[in-house]
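ok so for the tutorial part 2 we go from a plain amino acid sequence to predicted structure tokens. step 1 is just haveing the sequence, like this:
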Amino acid sequence: MKLSFFGAVKEVTGSAHLVELESGFKILLDCGMFQGEDEMADRKNREWGFDPAEIDCVIMSHAHIDHIGRLPMLVKDGFSGNIYSTPATRSLALIMLLDSAKIQEYDARYENKKAKKRGVKKPDIKPLYSNEHVYTALSQFVTINYERWHQVSDEWSFMLRDAGHILGSASVVIKAKEKGGEKTLAFTGDIGRPNRPILKNPVPLPPVDYLISESTYGNRLHESPPNEFKHLLKIIQETCHEKKGKLIIPAFSLGRTQEIVYMMDKMSNENKLPQVPVYVDSPLSVNATRIYRLHPECYDSDLQDYIEFDPDPFGFNGLRYVTEPEESKKINHLPDPCIIISASGMATAGRIRHHLYNHIESPKNTVLIVGYCAKGTTGAHLRSGAKTITLFGEEKRVRAKIEIMDSFSAHADQNELIFFLSNLKKDLRKMFLVHGEEEATKEFFRILIKEGFQNVILPDKGVVYEL
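step 2 — the prediction. this is what the tokens look like for a chain of 467 residues:
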């Protein structure tokens, strides 16, 4: 068995890990997009490091774009095998990939227009893929439920286990027969947090020989859930009630938005939420919430009990889901306090950029960052305390208050990662750390060694590791 890495190496985006079995059968774990606002991300997205036509199958951990975003391009470039995922991941993949194709087409037109203004006669910037490639990729999906061993051939089988990260997210366990005996390899995918709203807790992996583990928050600890509820309520009250301003929340359409809405639904039922309009302004968020409603099999017991009292945990008086562009524009000109939840979570694209453009310079307003933001993104600039940001070619002064709540992260923190991995320590022969910025990964490496893990490896991109 051989293992090589082509994304999420000393960075968070672009997850793609290649497993080659003894027979030469090639399995790609994830096929994610590199995210960021620079040319480097675009260049990396157009390079594979392997031949897509030689990949025999893909196993998807979950439907976030940094894990699923290049699937249509893989198909476009020659891949014709099965794409395995949970049913919920397949449902979400449709809306996520169609939205990605739409954004790429818009960006390509915009960049070509700019190139013409610079004097380029025939600019030819193309999107990575189109809707046609998305639908072709969706036709290749084969859905597998959790905790079911799927025998692909006499040589190997795999199982998906609930990772508790977003709806349908999974860890992957592979068993392969080789001349020297059976080998087992697991991929954590993105590990969720225990005791989070909506989803079940992450299910620990069984003992395995080799492990690919994420390390996103390997150097951080998150805020606890009780403080989180109070912290969010305090920000809402200070911004909307005391300062009469607007609370702008850049949030991922998938997972983060539903969690925030569910928490506000609870505040509303407890008569704690101020009487201000709440707008979820993102067609993708609206569609994702519909899919969340269709997969109650992924809910934890608390939410299953809650929906007996409140049948719609993603809806309350004062909440409005916005899809039409004209209605979105009107929100920016409302004089009264309100809460705006909009995508994208890193503020790299989408309607959130218009809301930031119109509200970032007012000290009455607050921008609440509720998730990870890759280097170079507008969200990352705001997180780091930037005094100005550039939106639509214009420099805007950051006068709004910037709040950060990493507790909303769907990623396990350092302690939660150690707890999730603790039962594997005895049997592991090698562990590879991926999906983390270099600083976080190195710190997590040091913690793992201190905790007694051995043969922990920080892989290099494109290097082949013999297992």
